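Protein in question kept underneath.
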Amino acid sequence: MSIYWERCDICEKHRPTSPVSYRGNIIRICYECSFLLDAWKMRGRESWRRLTTPEEKEKKEEEKRMKVIEELLKEDEEKE
């Protein structure tokens, strides 16, 4: 498998990519997005463009953590 430093066709960031055959087309995909594409194939989704990038996933998880922390702080204030 050859590795090239080019734009990933999924996340559109310049990273080391490798060519992958997808529905008869050759696409360039980075290491992180290859995991997302594999996970998508397991779930059987219709559009691989709907996948979230790892950065977006981390951001959503961080937002969830912040909401939980805010709720705990509100509960502590109400107890006092």
About this structure: The chain has one domain: 4-79.
